[in-house]
TrEMBL record:
E.C. number: 6.3.2.2
A Gene Ontology biological process term: glutathione biosynthetic process
GO cellular component terms, A-Z: cytosol
Keyword Ligase in annotation: yes
Family the UniProt entry places it in: Belongs to the glutamate--cysteine ligase type 1 family. Type 1 subfamily.
Domain Glutamate--cysteine ligase: start-end pairs: 10-381
UniProt source species: Pseudomonas graminis
Catalysed reaction equations from the record: L-cysteine + L-glutamate + ATP = gamma-L-glutamyl-L-cysteine + ADP + phosphate + H(+)
Name used for this protein in its record: Glutamate--cysteine ligase
GO molecular function: ATP binding; glutamate-cysteine ligase activity; metal ion binding
Keywords associated with the record: ATP-binding, Glutathione biosynthesis, Ligase, Nucleotide-binding
Pathway info: Sulfur metabolism; glutathione biosynthesis; glutathione from L-cysteine and L-glutamate: step 1/2
Record keyword rRNA-binding present: no
Gene expressing this chain: gshA
């Protein structure tokens, strides 16, 4: 253990500081496809009974009209966060009729690109902007890629922890600057070490063959309709997933908040020749918001993002520049198809400890070779993570994945012990022990269990996924919400529909072209 990490753990373990770790906040966003009873993409509109996707804070859509997104509030106890997510699923199932929520991250067999419905958000200018943005994503990356789903895990350390750590660090700047610098340091370490999460929690070693739409690949045939890699952990996070040539040179490493926000500002303002060739209009209609590297900053794809809650009408970068980093959003987690909501408390507790490890451990700036190593290690593990004797790059040499993983778990254990002391439990250490068992025996990982279940039941990816979806549907439907909870969800759904209708009726009559122009200008106005 490094001197810095040891000093910080000692400091946070002091009686006056121990309760701070109880105040970390956790929020989860779960994306999931709506599918038919036959395991095909639901072509129905977003169910009105779930409310308006534009204005319902807990149930919205992501890329497609068929791609639900469930959003919990940020809560101190991850058990409460997961309970919130469970209740959203129960409510959704009370309104889905004969449809199912698809259990894994990789999509069901999809219709032709033209028949994948883009999410619709009504006739307000902001609703139309969200729709045009998604049309742009279809042009740039194809609709198929946008149907991949995941778990986004939002985590923040309590505001009161930063002055304590800052005093120890003898940092010259403000608490806010120290907080932002610390979160960026966390992100650098996440880039270094997130391969471990892919080994432990990756759950997409196989996919429906039609997903590739005839593209060349190095996957193996599991059966007539299923492709896989025998040692893969997360094909979702591999180069088969969401990739972009335009983004290839964009912020490969995080040095500080300013370089991060500046690189995104430039990307939103810099034309990209292939997009310029397409243009923003076709037959007089908008088809993308602009012809730049990014239409908006959220188009930048990364495994983790620095975030700040935005004010109404404020853009994410504006919030970061104005008020600094408030939390991180971990975006690389697969949905575990064996778990009803795709994640459980044991996983959540380990992720908390892992993120704290990234936050408290030394985090020097990434040299170019280290950046390259981080990217290479991540891609190696998502495609070959369970291969016996797999070697990863560390500094100027190689190291066995299991040796490195056990070293990291040894260092994370005192963090688990500190979290347990803070919460009065032993569950963080127990979660770590479960992860150590997966390192010792790769057959215990979710990715291995997916392939084992498919083999045992003599079923391909789609049959396995539909079977799991049906198991989860039975779980939620046999445990309905209380009458009071059901009424509350229904009330929020109706309120969201009324909010969207009011927005469409009362917003200032600014034509959409002017609205888009003002939206684009808002990011360019941010000073360096």
């Amino acid at each position: 253990m490094s001197e810095l990490l040891n000093r910080r753990l000692t400091l946070l373990g002091e009686h006056s500081n121990l309760s701070l770790l109880e105040k970390c906040l956790h929020g989860i966003e779960r994306e999931c496809l709506r599918v038919t009873g036959e395991g095909r993409l639901a072509q129905t509109p977003h169910p009105e009974a779930l409310g308006a996707a534009l204005t319902n804070e807990q149930i919205t859509t992501d890329y497609s009209e068929s791609l639900l997104e469930f959003i919990t509030p940020a809560l101190a106890n991850p058990a409460d966060t997961l309970e919130s997510l469970e209740k959203i699923h129960r409510f959704a199932y009370s309104k889905l009729g004969s449809e199912y929520i698809w259990s894994p991250s990789m999509p069901c067999p999809l219709p032709a690109e033209a028949d994948i419905p883009i999410a619709y958000y009504g006739t307000s200018n902001i609703g139309k902007l969200k729709y045009v943005y998604r049309q742009g994503l279809a042009l740039r990356y194809g609709k198929t890629m946008q149907c991949i789903a995941g778990i986004h895990y939002n985590f923040s350390l309590p505001e009161a922890i930063w002055p304590v750590l800052r005093q120890d660090a003898k940092f010259e700047g403000s608490d806010r600057d120290f907080q932002s610098e610390s979160y960026i340091g966390l992100i650098r370490n996440f880039r270094r070490y997130s391969w471990l999460l892919m080994y432990l929690f990756g759950a997409s070693p196989a996919l429906d063959a039609s997903f590739l739409r005839g593209r060349s690949h190095q996957l193996e045939q599991f059966d007539a309709e299923t492709l896989y890699l025998p040692y893969a952990t997360s094909l979702r996070m591999s180069d088969l997933g969401y990739q972009s040539n335009a983004q290839a040179d964009l912020t490969p490493c995080y040095n500080d908040l300013l370089t991060y926000t500046d690189s995104l500002r430039r990307a939103v303002a810099t034309p990209y020749a292939p997009y310029v060739e397409i243009g923003t209009h076709k037959d007089g209609e908008w088809i993308q918001l602009n012809t730049n590297v990014l239409q908006i900053e959220n188009e930048y794809y990364s495994t983790i993002r620095p975030k700040r809650v935005t004010y109404s009408g404020e853009r994410p970068i504006q919030a970061l520049v104005a008020r600094g980093v408030q939390y991180v959003e971990v975006r690389c987690l697969d949905i575990n198809p064996f778990l009803p909501v795709g994640i459980d408390l044991q996983q959540s507790r380990f992720i908390d400890a892992f993120i704290l490890y990234c936050a408290l451990h030394d985090s020097p700036q990434l040299a170019s070779n280290e950046c390259c190593n981080a990217s290479t290690n991540f891609l190696t593990v998502v495609k070959e993570g369970r291969r016996p004797g797999l070697q990863l790059n560390r500094n100027d040499t190689t190291i066995d994945l299991k040796v490195w993983a056990n070293e990291m778990l040894d260092t994370i254990r005192p963090i688990c012990e500190l979290l347990d002391a803070s919460h009065g439990t032993d569950q963080h250490v127990k979660s770590l022990d479960v992860q150590r068992a997966k390192v010792a025996d790769a057959s215990l990982t979710p990715s291995a269990q997916v392939l084992a279940a498919m083999t045992e039941h003599k079923e391909g990816f789609t049959a396995f996924s539909l079977r799991q979806s049906q198991v989860h549907a039975d779980h939620f439907r046999s445990n309905p919400l209380s009458a009071e909870e059901q009424t509350s969800f229904e009330s929020k759904a109706r309120e969201s529909l009324a909010q969207q209708a009011e927005l469409e009726q009362t917003e200032e009559k600014v034509d959409f072209d002017t609205f888009v122009g003002a939206y684009q200008a808002s990011i360019l106005a941010i000073s360096n």
